[in-house]
Amino acid sequence: MRRFPLFETIAIIDGEPQNLAYHQQRFESAIKLYFNAQPRWQLAEVICVPDEFQQGSVRCRIDYNVSEFKQRFFFYTPRKINSFQCVYAEDLDYRFKYSDRKRLDSLKTLQADEVIIINNGKVSDCTIGNLLFNRKGQWFSSQDYLLKGTQLTKLVETGIVELVQITPQDLTQYEQIMMVNALNPFDLQGALPISAINFVR
């Protein structure tokens, strides 16, 4: 078993951690459900941004187990995603933010910048975040997500996004697609036309 089986990724903007309440909520849930234990620390207390990462957009990765953690910092440049490819999986489990991403990474394709994972016949996520779909000005995301990201949680709580069941056949009913994760918040400029999806199986 890995020393640190789980991790959190947190956006740091000009030295300030973003959406910490949502990360803390997910971290505490993982400690209780995965390790069957009680959380021993608050992320706000353990994150220590080094001087060289006090400016700009930074990715903080915290690998952890029930009793210890390791944190690392990286300057962040968003990936440019212009196309998606539907890929199919059965019984894919990523309910926790596992450090072992071999199965997720095996779904990547050279035919597109990112994938749409169809898990057990339902649209779920891509390999790096949750997917949003726009129809007539309303944004939706799959209720069959693999991992409920902090951005998705925030968007659902604030009423910007509604969770619904989405099948591959439903995708053509939508007009736009957007990827969100901790480092890529909701941004209409990041939305792509649904034609960016390659539906060929």
What can you tell me about this protein's structure?
The chain is globular, with a radius of gyration of 17 Å. The mean pLDDT is 96. It is α+β, with helices and mostly antiparallel strands and 201 residues long. The longest helix is centred in the first third of the chain and has 15 residues, at 20-34. The protein has helices at 20-34, 43-46, 102-105, 150-157, and strands at residues 6-13, 16-17, 57-64, 69-75, 84-89, 114-119, 122-123, 130-135, 138-142, 161-164, 176-180, 192-193, 197-198. The protein has 4 helices and 13 strands. 15% of the residues lie in helices and 31% in strands. A 5-stranded mixed β-sheet has the order 10-9-8-11-12, covered by helices on one side. The termini are far apart.
What's the average pLDDT? Answer: 96
Q: Biggest sheet, open or closed, and with what strands and sense? A: 5 strands, mixed
| Percent of sequence in beta strands | 25-35%
Shape: globular
Number of helices: 4
Unreliable stretches, pLDDT < 50, 5 or more residues? Answer: none
Strand neighbour order, sheet with most strands: 10-9-8-11-12
SSE map:
Elements: E1 6-13, E2 16-17, H1 20-34, H2 43-46, E3 57-64, E4 69-75, E5 84-89, H3 102-105, E6 114-119, E7 122-123, E8 130-135, E9 138-142, H4 150-157, E10 161-164, E11 176-180, E12 192-193, E13 197-198
Parallel strand pairs: 5-6, 5-13, 9-10
Antiparallel strand pairs: 1-2, 1-3, 3-4, 6-7, 8-9, 8-11, 11-12
